[in-house]
Backbone:
């Protein structure tokens, strides 16, 4: 708890920004969803024939897993891309159903005799709606809004994966660092925000209840207070746009490399840099670059070759670099010189097992028939991942490999849940958790040289930024990278601090 | 001579594809109370709902004050036609006073006049304004709800009142009280009233004329005394069925 308080105290300004982003995301998406869901509900309640298809579509949208929905939206024009807009679209999709349903339920719950009397007394259809159906359906609609808001606060944490910011940044960062304090710094405010928003709407619902007139002043105060906080917080969140946007994928090394690019540009130029770190994977980062959501991020040449350009993997560092550079150029992207380290896949086992079995290389894994394997989604899917590996080494496991989140995989291995996995050769956790890297004795894994890839137009617009990035060429060794990863993952240092210390050491910065 | 308050001229109507009224002709003179009696499904409620255009006839015409309901603006027609149903249909989110004030507010009466009218009506139907103005519908007994419903229907002083089993859900004692209340109100106001009821005794007590409906047709329309004296088995059976229901249950001898 003390650690959490210290963390919050030292990140006050940033947390206010993240909280503001979160509030804006949820408030805006719920408002849009209400503007769609309530009228749709009114139509559906009046025409039961329409109600079924409308609710079915909303139901279907609700069942799409949130990350999948984000991924699906990124390539779409106008509503897609990365950042706030896409997150708003996705959050709105999720918020519509509860509001729509509650509106239909509320209207259908109005006693028919009451509506009949209203009509028979000479109320026009508008008056029946405004004076009778609406007030009677309102408690149900408010409860639908409350459900939508609580779902929205939770789902908005995932919006961080597509660079929309919000409290999810801490959760993803914490997962990457395996640091519960950082996770809590995102999760706890999110939970409190959900409770506060729910309470505020409950208070607003009481305003609508004519039987509780006496509580009106209190409820008005509560709603005004919440609105004031939201406005203040969102005011802080909407800062001006920076000159360049640096991105990164969602693991520690990527965050460090993103920070490295950002600080290098900031140190050597007068440009302002916005950080959109923790994007949820290679495809998302690449689409973000193409759509202009980010301007530059560090990719690995082998990843570009196979995962982005769908080419067979290769172990020839120069040839891969040349191929990928040409391919990127065709998309209006510039591949900048390599940073200096090769983050190839490493097959990891527990250090204890290595010592006990005298194991050295991957080919010996085939002798361990009872071992359980677990891999990240990407490794299982990629042609240069598990399929090729098991073919090259003749591996077969008692059970099919478990699919696990990349961030949890080292922990799972150390805890004995799995016995072998694939990780990053530069991971700081390898040392921290007492894991060992097996030798790739059949030279299966291709090269994964880290190299910044940028939007060509932006590099032309800001040659100073291009020069700053180029001056990092060949300056980051595998040892440097492991050390920085270790400093963040195990020593719980801030990526920004670690990068600052690193840049202080090398010439020219 | 003024036209009848309501005149049904060879009216046929159907609900959900089923014909429920066949060539019904019936006249309600101004200031009179006409009771519609008959079994369930005989078409009483349908006939009532044609008057304020909750339904339209398939053929024939319903004339209110000599003008076809099709020619009336439905909103104007309804605002001058009071409507009372079983269990009153009060708006649950509005106080008793607010319920009664509904139509005067739609007619944009000045608020002082509305207040005065609400008190006047509550007194008329036997509810103490000081006690009942601010009550919510769910705080009322069945009889009190029915009285408030009657007050609401009378609010804008409509010349015509439609009542669909208004006393149907009440216990016998409360029902008796409300019958007396209705008679007292009617002696003061002399509205034209169409009253749908299951209860032949109620019809005989409250109505000037009784119209008996059978399978969508009016088979008798006369004063209570003459209807009681009728020889038509469809009418006399109705008496037994409606009034003597408990006794009519067949007994099984041991």
Residues:
């Amino acid at each position: 708890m003390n650690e959490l308080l210290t963390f919050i105290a030292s990140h006050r300004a940033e947390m206010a920004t993240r909280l503001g982003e979160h509030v804006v995301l949820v408030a805006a998406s719920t408002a849009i969803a209400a503007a769609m869901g309530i009228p749709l509900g009114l139509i559906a309640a009046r025409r039961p024939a329409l109600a079924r298809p409308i609710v079915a579509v909303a139901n279907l949208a609700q069942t799409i897993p949130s990350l999948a929905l984000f991924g699906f939206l990124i390539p779409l024009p106008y509503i897609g891309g990365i950042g706030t807009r896409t997150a708003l679209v996705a959050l709105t999709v999720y918020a519509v159903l509860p509001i729509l349903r509650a509106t239909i339920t509320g209207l259908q719950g109005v006693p028919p005799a009451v509506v009949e009397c209203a009509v028979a007394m000479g109320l026009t259809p508008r008056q029946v709606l405004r004076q009778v159906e609406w007030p009677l359906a309102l408690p149900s609609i408010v409860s639908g809004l409350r459900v939508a808001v609580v779902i929205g606060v939770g789902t908005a944490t995932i919006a961080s994966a597509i660079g929309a910011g919000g409290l999810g940044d801490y959760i993803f960062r914490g997962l990457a660092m395996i640091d519960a304090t950082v996770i809590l710094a995102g999760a706890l405010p999110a939970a409190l925000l959900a409770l506060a928003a729910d309470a505020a709407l409950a208070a607003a619902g009481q305003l609508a209840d004519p039987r509780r007139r006496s509580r009106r002043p209190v409820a008005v105060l509560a709603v005004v207070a919440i609105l004031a906080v939201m406005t203040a917080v969102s005011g802080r969140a909407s800062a001006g746009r920076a000159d360049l946007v640096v991105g990164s994928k969602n693991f520690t090394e990527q965050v460090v490399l993103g920070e490295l690019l950002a600080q290098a540009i900031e140190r050597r130029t007068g440009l302002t840099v916005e950080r959109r770190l923790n994007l949820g994977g290679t495809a998302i980062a690449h689409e973000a670059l193409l759509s202009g959501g980010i301007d530059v991020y560090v990719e690995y040449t082998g990843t570009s070759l196979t995962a982005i350009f769908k080419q067979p993997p290769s172990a020839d560092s120069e040839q891969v670099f040349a191929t990928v550079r040409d391919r990127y150029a065709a998309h209006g992207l510039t591949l900048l010189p390599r940073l200096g380290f090769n983050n190839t896949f490493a097959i990891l086992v527990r250090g204890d097992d290595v010592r006990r079995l005298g194991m050295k290389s991957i080919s010996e894994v085939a002798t361990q028939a009872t071992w359980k394997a677990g891999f990240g989604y990407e490794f299982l899917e990629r042609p240069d991942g598990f399929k090729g590996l098991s073919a090259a080494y003749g591996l077969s496991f008692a059970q099919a490999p478990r699919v696990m989140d990349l961030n949890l995989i080292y922990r799972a291995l150390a805890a004995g849940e799995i016995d072998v996995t694939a990780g990053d050769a530069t991971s700081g956790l390898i040392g921290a958790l007492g894991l060992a890297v097996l030798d790739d004795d059949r030279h299966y894994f291709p090269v994964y040289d880290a190299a910044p890839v940028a939007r060509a137009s932006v590099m032309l617009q800001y040659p100073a930024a291009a020069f700053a990035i180029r001056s990092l060429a060949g300056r980051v060794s595998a040892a440097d990278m492991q050390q920085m990863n270790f400093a963040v993952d195990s020593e719980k240092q801030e990526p920004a601090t670690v990068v600052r210390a690193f840049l202080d050491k090398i010439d020219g910065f | 001579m003024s036209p009848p308050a309501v005149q049904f001229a060879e009216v046929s109507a159907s609900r959900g594809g089923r014909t429920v009224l066949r060539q019904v002709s019936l006249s309600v003179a101004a200031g009179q109370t006409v009771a519609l009696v008959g079994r369930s499904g005989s078409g009483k409620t349908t006939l009532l709902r044609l008057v304020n255009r909750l339904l339209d006839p398939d053929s024939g015409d319903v004339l209110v004050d000599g003008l076809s309901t099709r020619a009336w603006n439905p909103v104007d027609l309804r605002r001058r036609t009071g409507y009372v149903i079983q269990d009153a249909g009060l708006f649950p989110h509005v106080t008793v006073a607010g319920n009664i004030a509904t139509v005067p507010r739609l007619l944009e009466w000045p608020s002082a006049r509305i207040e005065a009218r609400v008190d006047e009506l509550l007194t008329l139907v036997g509810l103490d304004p000081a006690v009942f103005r601010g009550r919510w519908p769910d705080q009322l007994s069945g009889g009190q709800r029915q009285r408030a419903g009657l007050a609401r229907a009378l609010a804008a002083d409509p010349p015509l009142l439609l009542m669909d089993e208004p006393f149907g859900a009440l216990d016998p004692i409360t029902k008796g009280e409300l019958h007396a209340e209705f008679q007292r109100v009617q002696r003061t106001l002399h509205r034209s009233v169409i009253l749908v009821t299951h209860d032949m005794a109620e019809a005989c007590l409250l109505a000037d004329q009784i119209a008996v409906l059978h399978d969508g047709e009016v088979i008798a329309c006369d004063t209570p005394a003459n209807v009681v004296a009728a020889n038509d088995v469809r009418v006399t059976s109705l008496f037994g069925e409606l009034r003597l229901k408990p006794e009519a249950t067949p007994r099984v001898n041991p």
In short: Confidence is low (pLDDT under 50) at residues 242-254 of chain B. The first helix of chain B runs from residue 44 to 51. Chain B is about 40% helix and 25% strand. Chain B touches chain A through 24 residues (CB under 8 Å).
